[in-house]
Design brief:
Blueprint: E1 2-12, E2 17-22, H1 27-30, E3 36-40, E4 47-55, E5 58-63, H2 69-74, E6 79-83, H3 98-101, E7 105-107, E8 113-123, E9 125-132, E10 135-140, E11 148-150, E12 155-157
Parallel strand pairs: 7-12
Antiparallel strand pairs: 1-2, 1-6, 2-5, 3-4, 3-6, 4-5, 7-8, 8-9, 9-10, 11-12
């Protein structure tokens, strides 16, 4: 599975540097000089980081072979991706990467299947997007509501209060 770690923004200066919208919690290693990144669209890459620096809170990256503003502009909007296999598992048993949760079957404490995790949103509180027959519902990803995540079994147990998984809660 491909995971987006950044999106190339506008060029910065005349020598091929681009701004990167960071979508990883580890930008220092993902964008380390010498790192090769796949791209979406694939025809734009792979791109190899030549240098990187922070400027006013924005990551600026120069890629090998991108030496001027015109070439940098051609890359605008390109997604920088890695294979999910490149991410080491967390040492914390209660911490999960989004790609590990997406696709898990959602079951009740009695093991009745009620849906599937299709996305994870990070808006102040982590929310699981659970696809139900009637539409999607949001489930706060907290231990009180999601007491069990079993990656080996491919399930996530939701102990939902009344109404959380009902059709009225669909978005």
């Amino acid at each position: 599975m491909q995971l987006v770690v950044g999106r190339i923004g506008r060029p910065h200066g005349l020598r091929g540097e681009v701004s990167v919208e960071v979508r990883t919690d580890d930008p220092e290693s993902r964008f380390a000089p010498g790192s090769a990144l796949s791209t979406d669209p694939a025809s734009a890459g792979p791109l190899v980081v030549e240098s990187r620096r922070w400027h006013s809170g924005i990551l600026l990256v120069r890629f090998l072979g991108v030496a001027d503003r015109d070439r940098a502009e051609e890359l605008r909007g390109t997604m920088l991706v890695i294979d999910s296999e490149e991410i080491p598992p967390s040492e914390d048993p209660d911490e999960f990467h989004d790609h590990q949760l997406i696709g898990l079957a959602v079951v009740t404490p009695g093991r009745e299947r009620v849906g599937e995790v299709t996305d994870v949103l990070h808006h102040g509180q982590d929310l699981l997007v659970v696809r139900r027959d009637f539409g999607d519902v949001y489930v706060p990803f907290v231990k009180a509501l999601v007491p069990v995540v079993d990656l080996d079994e491919g399930i996530l147990v939701v102990d939902a209060p009344e109404g959380l998984l009902d059709p009225d809660a669909a978005v």
